Amino acid sequence: MWSSASSARAEGDELVQQLLNRQASLSGMTAEFTFTMYYWPKDKDPFDPENWVRTDPPQLKCNGRLVRRGLDFRIDLSFSGAISLTDASHSWIDGVRTVQTRGEDDGVWSVIRDREFHRIQGPLPFLTPLELTVFDYHDAPLGTLLEAKELRIESETAETIVLRPGPDFSAGEPPRELIQVRFDPSRGLLPRELSARLDLADGRFQQWEMRTTATVEHAGIDLIREAIIVNRNPHVDFLGVFHFVAGRVEIRATTAASQMEIELPTANYRLLDELSGEVKEVAADGRVTFHRVRSPEEMQQAQEAVSAAFEAQQKAEETLAARQGAFRWIVAAAVTGVAAVAVVWWLRNRRGVMTP
Amino acid sequence: MTLPRRASLYLWLIALILAWSAGGKLFWPAEFQKLLHGLGLLPPWLITPTAYALPAAELLVAIAVVTGFGRTWALFLCLFLSLVFAGIHAYVILTGIPVSCGCAGLRFSTDTRPAHVVMLVLSIALALVAVAAIFRTAPRSDAPSASSAGSVAS
User: Fold this and answer.
1) Strand-pair partners of A40
2) Which of A190, A242, A332, B39 suits B110 as a labelling partner, its CA being 20 to 30 A distant?
3) ipTM score of the complex?
4) Is the peptide bond before B139 cis (omega within 30 degrees of 0)?
5) pLDDT tens, residue by residue, A1-23
6) Of residues B127, B131, B139, nearest to A349 (C-beta)
7) Which pLDDT score is estimated for B138?
């Protein structure tokens, strides 16, 4: 028994190492891609493009470019389509996110620096795999999470692994996330299918699925060239499906760190630096119109306010779900009560019992 | 079929309460939808249909009870509505979150606990009267020929 457990652990370690190898081999990846969001009726197969509700213009379309070096990367996104989103450049360097956007109304640049990995816009299948959206509460790819024991392998076959959060991840709470990945072991653990499900209160869940539909080999590494990413939510009739197509994807051995840095504008911008506490506004002529550095206490208070607002929002959602659940029970009880009266009434009439 | 005077009085009472309750909701559906949103019992997609269907059902029950046309079915519907209303008020009282509900018409919608207690008692009373009336009417009374306000009161 001990030997089989240690053997499984050894196999798990081998898989983690293979994942880390793949992760390392993706360093230097450059991709130019498009993803388009469509809707699909939830009773149809979302992976069949015939079932997508296509509109002109599409609901959401994005042209993007990604450059990667180690675990750092930069993404430039340009949105079009019926849903209007501001174009954005994100960089993730040494655990710090920098995002730069330009206001549509006033044209003022907005620059934010923080450690909020989950705010990097996706979904993208590149980052081994899909972690930008699925693992939006983490700041590391799958291999790194496994290596750090934040995820553990629950079961494993030649092609599929099932993952759960590690024991230390949620402070003793039972794991709510279930991640299943089907790799192609003959192609360097290229992810073929991925499903990540997060169970929520009151039977609700959120599920993301990805299926690789086309690949390309570059520098001896198999890369995703086309993928379908599906967001499932049982309470919504029409759901989003993202069709991801990379026009060009390749590995460059000479990707410089400077390619990932976002250069701050010299004028006409607002800066919010959550790391240093600096808040700055600079006019179009370069004049500083506002400058303040928040104290650590102020930043702590601001963070607590955000946490409190988030908790309040979660509590409101739970209350709403509880009320709707209670209402279903009330209606069921009322139907039962009416049915009981109806049965008695019918039996009395059948026997010809008439009240005076 | 004719009914005893006291039974007729109860039927008129049901009709008046339901007609009053339906009136404001029918005239100000947008306001009622806001109340339903605030109540948080219904999923969003059900709010608009409910805002129209519920007062329409209340009014139909009131008319049917008075005229005698489909009275028995109307009383069953009245029983169902009363039980649902009672359940909602009991839930609101138990959870301690008073909400304006619009059950007594929009004019008397308040978000106080005593108001919910009053509405709970009224809903239970309405349900009991509906049950009593159901057993005092026969299926034959649903026939159109037997239905008129006069026959109720006679």
Assistant:
1) A239
2) A332
3) 0.81
4) no
5) 333 444 445 556 788 888 888 88
6) B139
7) 54
Amino acid identity, residue A176?
A: R
d(CA A311, CA A115): 20
**Which residue in A61, A40, A59, A60 sits closest to A49, CA to CA?**
A40
Tell me how close the Cα of A320 comes to any Cα of chain B, in angstroms: 6
The tens digit of pLDDT for each residue in B81-121 reads 999 999 988 988 888 776 766 666 555 556 677 788 888 89
CA pair distance B112, B119, nearest whole angstrom: 11
Count CA atoms within 13 Å of residue A62 on its CB side.
24
Q: Tell me, yes or no, if the pTM score tops 0.80.
A: no
B interface test, pick of A204, A330, A335, A349 with most B CB neighbours within 10 Å: A330
**∠ at Cα B4 (B3, B8), nearest 5°?**
70
Give every CB contact of residue B54 below 8 A, 6+ residues apart in sequence.
B22, B25, B81
| Residues on chain A touching B40 (C-beta within 8 angstroms) | 319-320, 323-324
